């Protein structure tokens, strides 16, 4: 643990006031494996960790759940999460939705958490460039926006059985990767596989090409094999394989789905973050 970790003074928050909130009672009903005594044990341990900020019981539930109810692993993951919050301020601090950088990246990158589920009941997070101009892209800000939206969703809905990440890569290329850095790439991967209080069970990359395949190969050295094996790619001609996993009807209308367009969904989520 970093000796100078003082999150009480540098705490990163997304304020949530005007929306429904998930509750521990709902989580106990939803997850039979979740036990109040495990939450109490985590709470007792957290109180001994004076370097940590105030942590709600719901947050403890999220970590217990994502660690498959192994309390010791949940403790380690929670510490990694707050270390990440402290050590990667470009992603975790100053998460103000009215900040001009956040406003602009939200216009350039559409990130939505779909209402529907995949065929196994997992939550689907969908991402695609809205503005394909590389000058409008920033990897750190994209991860920050995704982090903010995920936080809001979990505060509203609590745990999810699993999370599937979908990336539509149309318009994305090497010029966009150049807008990031090696440290940005490593931070993004580290957060997903070591810190985030979610269970990623699938990563689907659609509309790929040779350039996207080359970009994905850059990820491999920094990813655990278990996570890298979750990546499935689809050319335009074999999208039906993707729709066999993610029902087409839960997707935005430009994908033949029943939801409004990705851009409209993105605007709705931006408003949700703004009023929170």
From TrEMBL:
GO cellular component: membrane
Cross-referenced CDD domains: SEC14
GO MF annotations, alphabetized: phosphatidylinositol bisphosphate binding
Domain called CRAL-TRIO: residue spans: 102-263
InterPro entries per UniProt: CRAL-TRIO_dom, CRAL-TRIO_dom_sf, CRAL/TRIO_N_dom_sf
SMART domains (alphabetical): SEC14
Name assigned to this protein: Alpha-tocopherol transfer protein-like isoform X2
Gene that encodes it: LOC113202015
């Amino acid at each position: 643990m970093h000796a100078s970790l003082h999150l009480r003074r540098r705490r990163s928050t997304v304020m949530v006031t005007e929306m429904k909130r998930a509750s521990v009672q709902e989580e106990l009903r939803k997850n039979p494996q979740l036990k109040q005594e495990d939450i109490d044990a985590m709470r007792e341990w957290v109180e001994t960790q004076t370097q940590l900020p105030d942590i709600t019981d719901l947050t403890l539930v999220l970590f217990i759940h994502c660690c498959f109810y192994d309390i010791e692993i949940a403790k380690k993951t929670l510490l990694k999460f707050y270390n990440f919050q402290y050590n990667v301020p470009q992603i975790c601090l100053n998460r103000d939705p009215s900040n001009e950088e956040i406003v602009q990246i939200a216009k350039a990158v559409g990130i939505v958490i779909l209402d529907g589920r995949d065929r196994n009941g997992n939550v689907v997070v969908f991402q695609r460039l809205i503005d394909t101009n590389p000058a409008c892209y920033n990897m750190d800000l994209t991860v920050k926006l995704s982090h903010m939206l995920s936080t809001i969703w979990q505060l509203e809905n609590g745990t999810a059985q699993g999370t599937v990440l979908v990336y539509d890569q149309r318009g994305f290329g090497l010029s966009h990767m150049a807008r990031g850095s090696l440290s940005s790439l490593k931070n993004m991967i580290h957060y997903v596989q070591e810190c985030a209080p979610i269970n990623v069970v699938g990563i689907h990359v659609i509309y790929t090409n040779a350039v996207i395949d080359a970009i994905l190969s850059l990820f491999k050295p920094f990813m655990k094999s278990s996570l890298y094996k979750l990546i499935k790619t689809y050319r335009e001609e074999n999208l039906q394989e993707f729709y066999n996993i993610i029902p087409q009807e839960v997707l935005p209308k430009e994908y033949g789905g029943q939801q409004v367009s990705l851009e409209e969904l993105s605007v709705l989520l931006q408003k949700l973050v703004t009023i929170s």
